[in-house]
Design a protein that fits this description.
Elements (H helix, E strand, L loop, with lengths): L11 E8 L7 E11 L3 E6 L4 E4 L13 H14 L2 H6 L3 E3 L15 E3 L6 H6 L6 E2 L2 H6 L6 E2 L3 E5 L5 E4 L8 E2 L3 E4 L2 E5 L1
Antiparallel strand pairs: 1-2, 2-3, 3-13, 4-12, 5-6, 7-8, 9-10, 10-11
């Protein structure tokens, strides 16, 4: 982990706090991978998934804008994970939400988010090709052998409008939105 001020893409920084251990409400530093850095801002993706949650409570046709997970990220996670001063540094991002390129499904309107998930296009652009490690908290909520996982929710729909794409060995079909998966939060902060 390096100081935010000197961090470069593909390095790790600490920002905010969230429970990292199963059945433990102790807030511990969140470790983020630097995806992009400009003179004034930095785009970060949580190195470890914070939670194992469904995209949406009901199995129904839904786009990112209307998902329960988007609401959870921008309300509960945001409120718990970041101090007042940290919230002042988080930038509201206008996210384009294109349809799944293989199936032309989903997409939706542009959203404004403080906390979000990567799209399929962004995942590819930022070169996520290796395994991530889950926190104990996220692992205990789901089923992961030895703490390794290949999967994370993306905000891009999958094969049908009631599925969302996963980073799971290039699984563009996705998983049904009411099934849980790993949540890697993404934020943009001011430097």
């Amino acid at each position: 982990v390096v100081p935010i001020e000197s961090a470069k893409p593909d390095q790790f920084v600490s920002f905010g706090k969230y429970p990292q251990e199963w059945k433990d409400s102790v807030l511990r530093p969140i470790i983020w991978r630097v995806l992009e850095r400009t003179e004034n801002e930095m785009l970060l993706s949580s190195r470890f998934p914070s939670e194992y949650l469904p995209m949406h409570a009901q199995r129904e046709s839904v786009i990112w804008e209307k998902t329960d997970l988007r609401k959870w990220l921008n309300e509960l996670f945001y409120d718990v994970a970041f101090s007042h001063n940290e919230k002042d540094r988080i930038v509201t991002v206008r996210n384009e939400n294109p349809p799944n390129p293989q199936y032309s499904v989903g997409g939706g309107t542009t959203t404004e988010d403080k906390v979000f998930l990567l799209s399929l296009d962004e995942l590819t652009a930022f070169g996520f090709v290796s395994k991530d490690t889950a926190t104990d908290h996220a692992t205990a909520s789901g089923t992961v052998g030895g703490g390794w996982l290949w999967s994370r929710w993306l905000r891009t729909n999958g094969k049908t409008a009631n599925r969302f794409a996963l980073r799971l060995l290039d699984n563009l079909d996705g998983e049904f939105c009411d099934k849980p998966n790993y949540v890697h939060a993404v934020i943009r902060i001011k430097l």
